[in-house]
Amino acid sequence: MKIKILLSATVLLTGSLLAAQASPADDITSAAQKLGGEPGYSWHVTVFVPEGSRFRPGPQDGKTAGGVTYIKMSFRNDETQVYMKGTNVVVTDPDGGWETLADMASDDQGPGRFIVGMIRNFKTPAAQAADLVAGAKELQQTNGAYAGDLTADAAKKLLSFRGRGGNANISNPSGTVQFWAANGELAKYEFHVKGTVTFNGNDVDVDRDTTVEIKDAGATTVDVPGAVKKLMP
């Protein structure tokens, strides 16, 4: 009897110690993994930039389920829809139809280059959040959120993810990140990055605040149009 009691006490103590050792970074990594394990979820992205900025992206909506990810993004008055399944990507074309990303990439003129760069570097929120945790110097839990500064390398990657030629063209990068979780699952995150991006010999000061809100976890489905299915094996 004494042995059983001692074993039970040891198990409880071990569990308590493990829980006590869990860091804020561990909590958010676990929350992102839990979200990624859902059969599906949706999200809404809002990007804030200072007035007068040359690059002013509109909102983005997305959802992923059943191995297919759908994104609807806007820039100025243009809207682009994307379906992704593994390495197969289908995108709306300028005429309102659909084309593969490979076909769009073959046209090296116009806004297609910009869209191709964004799509090739796209990550679902669960994956992006995990990268942000890895790129944070240290996370602290405060006022219901987990917050911290980003490393210079992490800020560089976020400033260059739109395909502007790589990290070597970015100077003075800095950034911060915040996460919110509900019931152990990622619910929202926000990151703010600043730096100077050199593009085609021109220096552009970038100051961008991105908010990603997660919704409908476990209840999201993705319907793929027939025209897209023909282009997506």
Q: Can you walk through the features of this model?
A:
It is a single chain. This protein has 233 residues and is of the alpha+beta class. It has one domain: outer membrane lipoprotein receptor (LolB), chain A. Helices cover 31% and strands 39% of the residues. Helix 2 (24-36) packs antiparallel against helix 5 (125-134). It is globular and about 50 Å long.
Fraction of residues in β-strands: 35-45%
CATH topology: outer membrane lipoprotein receptor (LolB), chain A
**Which percent range fits the helix content?**
25-40%
Main sheet: strand order: 6-5-4-3-2-1-11-10-9-8-7
Structural class: alpha+beta
Explain briefly what this protein structure is:
The chain is α+β, with helices and mostly antiparallel strands and 233 residues long.
